[in-house]
Design brief:
- It is a single chain.
- By secondary structure, this protein is of the alpha+beta class.
- The protein contains 9 helices and 10 strands.
- The protein has helices at residues 3-37, 40-69, 73-78, 81-93, 132-148, 153-171, 181-188, 192-197, 200-213; strands at 98-100, 103-106, 109-114, 119-122, 125-127, 179-180, 223-227, 236-239, 245-248, 250-254.
- The strands form 3 sheets. A 5-stranded antiparallel sheet has the order 1-2-3-4-5.
- Helix 4 packs across helix 5, helix 6 packs across helix 7 (181-188) and helix 6 packs across helix 9.
- The relative contact order is 0.09.
């Protein structure tokens, strides 16, 4: 099953409803004028035409309804057709996607497919959409909006350095020690309600913007350095300015003179 084929079936039926409604509205306006003007002859004629137009709207709507009701949305999801077409659309539109059914990452978003209820979740937001091309376009538009949003990389890295210093104290580590970014995230969001408003994917997106910013030090002149890890579970996946994936696991802040 391909939604684009189904979409092409719906288009002429939708147009038929639209055209019938346009005729209905045109006649309604004419009847208002004729009633006001006392043009009984044309009023009688247009009332008959209005009745026919109303029947045409009803008929066109019923044909459209029957066609839509014949679409097996559950089978469309469970067969894997939706996923296949979604991934193809991502490739066509240049939207980076990773993962396996039912969870995917379209950086910085987490996409979850609920085949049983035919729902799509973009992070925590439920999206009602059966057309893969439309869904991917929504993701792409949201990504572009995020990328255009104001971001002060210097402020972010300075806040990150403060969380780093706090983590050093709590974990009893020496200055300059590499700390996992996932650990720093917990220091940045110490309470559950903070993590709800600023989840780890949002943190990853800010890390990506910092990584791509070219900034190399904090406001007070401290240098910082990202590092990898052999433990992939600790690494945070980001996309660089060329759209290539990078994995950041640790960070350390240090005084360049020490």
């Amino acid at each position: 099953m391909n939604y684009e084929d189904f979409y092409q079936t719906l288009l002429p039926l939708e147009k038929s409803v639209k055209d019938s409604l346009a005729t209905l509205q045109k006649l309604s306006r004419a009847i208002s004028r004729e009633t006001e003007a006392g043009d009984i002859r044309n009023l009688s004629r247009d009332l008959s035409a209005l009745s026919e137009a109303a029947e045409a709207v009803s008929s066109a709507t019923e044909r459209l309804r029957e066609t839509v009701s014949g679409f097996d949305s559950r089978a469309y999801f469970e067969s894997g057709d939706f996923v296949e077409q979604m991934l193809a659309s991502c490739q066509e539109k240049g939207v980076d996607v990773r993962g396996d059914f039912p969870v995917y990452e379209m950086f910085p978003y987490r996409v979850r497919l609920d085949a049983e209820n035919q729902d799509i979740y973009l992070d925590r937001k439920k999206i009602h959409c059966m057309r893969p091309q439309s869904f991917v376009s929504q993701v792409q538009a949201s990504q572009e909006k995020l990328n255009k949003a104001a971001f002060n990389a210097l402020t972010f890295v300075s806040e990150l350095s403060e969380a780093y210093d706090l983590a050093l104290l709590k974990l009893k580590k020496h200055p300059g020690t590499d700390l996992y970014l996932t650990s720093l995230y917990k220091f940045l969001t110490p309470m559950g309600r903070f993590r709800k408003d600023y989840d780890q994917q949002s943190f990853a997106f800010d890390l990506a913007r910092l990584y791509n910013s070219g900034i190399e030090e904090t406001k007070n002149g401290r240098k910082f350095q990202f590092g990898p890890s052999r433990n992939n579970g600790k690494a945070i996946r980001i996309l660089d300015q060329d759209g290539q994936e990078q994995y950041l696991a640790t960070i350390r802040f240090f005084d360049p003179e020490e």
